[in-house]
Amino acid sequence: MLANIHVKNMALIKEADISLGKGLNILSGETGAGKSILLGSIAVALGLQNFKGFAREDADYALSELVFVIENEEQRQALLELEIPVEDGEVIISRRLSKGRTTSKINGETVPVSMVRKAGTLLIDIHGQHENQSLLHIRKHLELLDDFAGEKLALAKEKYNARYQEYGELKKELDQAQLDNATRAKEMDFLSFEIGEIEEAALQKGEDEALEDDYKRLANGKEILESVLEAHQLCASDGASEAIGRALRSLASVSEYDSDLKALYDQLMDVDSLLNDFNREISGYADELDVDEETLKKTEERLDLINHLKTKYGDTIEKIQAYCEEKKQRFAVLENYEGYLAERKSRFAACKKQLQKEAENLTVIRKEAAQRFTEQVKQALMDLNFLDVQFELDFRLLEDYMVSGQDEVCFMISTNPGQPLRPVQDTASGGELSRIMLAVKSVMADQEKVETLIFDEIDSGISGRTAQMVSEKLALIAGNHQVICITHLAQIAAMADVHFMIEKKVIENETQTSIRQLDEKESIDELARILGGAKITQMVLDSAKEMRQLAKNARGHGFQNEPE
SS3 of 8, please? Predict the structure, then answer.
């Protein structure tokens, strides 16, 4: 569950530290107090929103940090699969904006924001007004059914998706293989030209590097020869050799008297020997040096050819040769085109047949799940004051294979006796959409690994008995999950296990939002404010006390987690 929210320098919140409890956590406050800032901060921490519009411009940094307590073993294992360790039963997710740079962390380790999003989907489900609107999009209906169908469908979808990917690849290959004779002949001519051009060059591995060395030597042959001859003349002259000879003769008669001097004499002997070797080798180099213009021209032409091929077929000789092999294979395919096409058609047909079986299996599993889903959603809708509701799922088989299969599913509803079933997106009002989505969420809550659910705008467009029934449904979900709900309705706030007040105040000429946990008396006072507005009479206060007591009786317990 979400145990703690720490927010700093986010919009009107300078700093807030909120410890949440199990069960139903209610956040209430006057319109404009900043309730959306708190939800926005959670979304920022989970990588679902960026800091734009939230971070205070007058602060050095902005921070949103969430502490989750992991008690569910299945959830723990799912996190470990993402290589997220659960340290001391906790996972800490934070995002910080400083000097225009955003840093995301899990348990103190910097991670990509994509990892934060993946972790968030396992830990929390945020249900805002936009999600109610998602019911207006028919693709959402299939997603919800698939989530309800659970692991059996998930495994079947894995098999289908593997086959679907193969189907797509084979279809692409087959489409590309469909050539008329003229097109095929034209391609074969072009391939023949490319293959011929490369093979005629008879490239050798490493040839280009050797040619580059030869070209540098040949292009600078005259300069090299002049320098070599000058060096040979200087080293082979009588002066150098005679000087070393005189030095050797001077040391020869006395070197036997001192071992150190003998070592120096030996070194000079080596120098004399090296000089003689050098003179012989440099003389041979000069004799063999080829500065022939014809050789230079041929080397240059060969290099030009290789570089021309590199610009067309690959930047190394190895890549050019690999390109040639690839084109030879393509040429062989086109030579035996009829056989190649028949083989592709056979593979595609076999894959399509198997894909059809996998798609039909998805449909069977979905229809089995749909029976349970419709019964449970219908009951949940009745619990939410849809007294004569009819609810069904309409299946339509698509002509093409999609990544989700061949099924299109539409939620069909009738909220009044005698009215025909119609698509929910064509009939439901804003308030009805909220209740329908709540009904679906209540049915799916036990299916999901997510332990924490956040509801915002769930009370949109409802009042009276309907509001009471929505509050009871939220309390029911909170029996097995942590629920965080922002509300403007007293009926929902009265059900709180933990109640928070969000207030906007002016402090030192600056507007700030603060969040504090209410005790029992303060919670009743807040209920009275919601019921009566700015002026709270004794009658309104008595009504708030009665509403709170009725909520306690309905839930079978009193107020939890009061601050000390």
Answer: strand
